[in-house]
């Protein structure tokens, strides 16, 4: 029995599948069977961009993994409410509350006049670029985009609650969360508190009571006196710390606890650890039941990162005339919890595979219904913690199998998870010029007459015209020649 889920992006679901969805939960350090808090309704929060610069391919790998997760949830019959934050204030250069605000620093980089209007212009510019990037990668947009600057009231209310409950204290430059008040601080990473102290964080603020304490609110004084974005609060004008926005906004749109919180692996030890601390201290309940994290994209120099200058944008991929979906395909070849090494050679190989897949699929029979056995194997793969490499291997097995009429429908179902845009080419053979069709008919007659030299000559003319001809049991098949 099949059913369609959702409206904007219907995902086919085989409801009689015995393979329950298993996801690796960073919090428990094992694969857990996914059971939502509310029947069939899933609250999903994913950490979004800080809109001060381009997203690099490492960032985009995380968004692709989260998109696959959302598609798999829908495939399994869940209704997904997806919320993503947009950080447009408060993210300092160091995740440990040190250095300059990234948005302020970007003003200098782009030589913009120091004003609130310039900051908004900067944020809008990179937000639109980010949305264009995810569109080119066929990443489904969230149901809710929530900007930090649009939720200052909620963040201040949360900080006030933490102060009232004795989990926060005031210093000359801000309000800090007292991590010593929370016995299980750091449980997400599994690190002992001492491992999170000196050496793991940047130079200490002398007024901090503990090295791991983090900023909830920064006052517009001292090193932040020139900060342009500021709001009134009980502690004076200032701006929120980076971590507080996600706690406040996820609670507003999804409640607490909600089902799944996602992000990059680099968020585990600081950003997500601090989110958990402030949310659970304030409200006495878990923030999220499942925590999923995508691994790094690496290059020869190490992990891809803006801070080290070793980052490549999607714009650079397009400038090299490589299809953006080739990068999506490349990401599918590695499990999301495994490092993926990026090279231009591997990206071009991924593009070649995608081109070959698109070209091959054009000649399949028109879709009827998917093959149940293949769909069962596919479900088993994707429900095993989003095992895309196994699912991709199955895809190519199906591609190489003789078409019994179900191949096109099966692959189209697969692609509702892969997101490779195959709907535009599967079972849609290209138009063949009449001149090429004539050459093919002449070649067929030559072969029937056993004039093989003439047949070979005609094959050469067909290839010069940009096509190939394949002899099958069902007759000659004309294909566009792939360079």
How would you characterize this protein structure?
With 483 residues, the protein is of the alpha/beta class. Helix content is 39%, strand content 19%. The chain has 14 helices and 20 strands. It has a five-stranded parallel beta sheet, with helices on both faces. A four-stranded antiparallel beta sheet has the order 10-11-12-13. Strands 17-16-18 form a three-stranded mixed beta sheet, covered by helices on one side. The protein is elongated. The two termini are 42 Å apart. The model is unreliable at 1-16 and 198-202 (pLDDT under 50).
List the helices and strands and how they pair.
Layout: E1 2-5, E2 11-14, E3 22-25, E4 30-33, E5 41-46, H1 57-75, E6 79-86, E7 92-94, E8 98-101, H2 102-109, H3 116-136, E9 144-147, H4 152-164, E10 168-170, E11 174-177, E12 214-219, E13 238-240, H5 242-254, E14 258-264, H6 268-283, E15 288-294, E16 297-299, E17 302-303, H7 314-319, H8 324-332, E18 340-341, H9 344-361, H10 372-382, H11 388-400, H12 407-418, H13 434-448, H14 452-464, E19 467-472, E20 475-480
Parallel strand pairs: 5-6, 5-14, 6-9, 14-15, 16-18
Antiparallel strand pairs: 1-2, 3-4, 7-8, 10-11, 11-12, 12-13, 16-17, 19-20
Helix pairs in contact: 1-8, 2-3, 4-5, 5-6, 8-9, 10-11, 11-12, 13-14
């Amino acid at each position: 029995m099949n059913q369609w889920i959702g409206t904007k992006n219907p995902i086919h679901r085989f409801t009689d599948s015995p393979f329950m969805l298993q996801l690796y939960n960073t919090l428990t350090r094992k694969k857990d069977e996914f059971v939502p808090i509310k029947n069939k309704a899933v609250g999903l929060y994913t950490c979004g961009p800080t809109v001060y610069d381009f997203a690099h391919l490492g960032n985009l790998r995380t968004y692709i993994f989260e998109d696959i997760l959302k598609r798999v949830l829908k495939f399994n019959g869940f209704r997904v409410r997806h919320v993503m934050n947009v950080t447009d204030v408060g993210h300092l250069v160091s995740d440990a509350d040190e250095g300059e605000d990234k948005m302020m620093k970007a003003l200098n980089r782009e030589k913009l006049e120091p004003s609130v209007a310039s900051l908004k212009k900067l944020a809008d510019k990179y937000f639109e670029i980010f949305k264009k990037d995810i569109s080119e990668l066929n990443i489904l947009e969230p149901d809710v985009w929530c900007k930090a600057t649009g939720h200052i009231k909620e963040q201040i209310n949360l900080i006030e609650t933490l102060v009232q409950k004795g989990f926060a204290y005031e210093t000359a430059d801000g309000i800090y969360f007292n991590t010593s008040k929370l016995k299980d601080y750091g449980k997400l990473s599994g690190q002992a508190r001492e491992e999170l102290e000196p050496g793991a964080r940047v130079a200490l603020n002398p007024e901090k009571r503990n090295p791991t304490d983090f900023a909830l609110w920064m006052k517009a004084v001292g090193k932040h006196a020139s900060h342009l974005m500021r709001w009134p609060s009980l502690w004076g004008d200032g701006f929120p710390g980076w971590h507080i926005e996600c706690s406040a906004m996820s609670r507003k749109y999804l409640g607490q606890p909600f089902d799944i919180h996602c992000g990059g692996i680099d968020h585990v030890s600081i950003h997500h650890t601090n989110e958990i601390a402030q949310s659970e201290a304030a409200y006495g309940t878990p923030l999220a039941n499942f925590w999923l994290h995508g691994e790094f994209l690496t290059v020869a120099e190490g992990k891809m990162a803006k801070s080290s200058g070793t980052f490549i944008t999607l714009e650079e991929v397009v400038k090299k005339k490589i299809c953006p979906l080739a990068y999506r395909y490349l990401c599918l070849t590695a499990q999301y919890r495994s490092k993926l090494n990026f090279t231009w050679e591997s990206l071009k190989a991924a593009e070649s595979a995608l081109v070959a897949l698109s070209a091959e699929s054009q000649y399949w029979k028109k879709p009827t219904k998917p093959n149940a056995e293949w769909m069962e194997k596919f479900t088993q793969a994707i429900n095993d913690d989003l095992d895309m490499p196994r699912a991709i291997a199955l895809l190519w097995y199906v591609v190489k199998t003789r078409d019994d009429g179900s191949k096109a429908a099966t692959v189209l179902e697969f692609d509702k998870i892969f997101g490779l845009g195959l709907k535009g080419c599967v079972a849609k053979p290209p138009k063949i010029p009449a001149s090429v069709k004539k050459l093919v008919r002449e070649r067929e007659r030559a072969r029937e007459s056993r004039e093989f030299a003439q047949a070979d000559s005609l094959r050469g003319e067909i290839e010069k015209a940009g096509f190939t001809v394949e002899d099958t049991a069902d007759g000659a098949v004309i294909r566009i020649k792939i360079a």
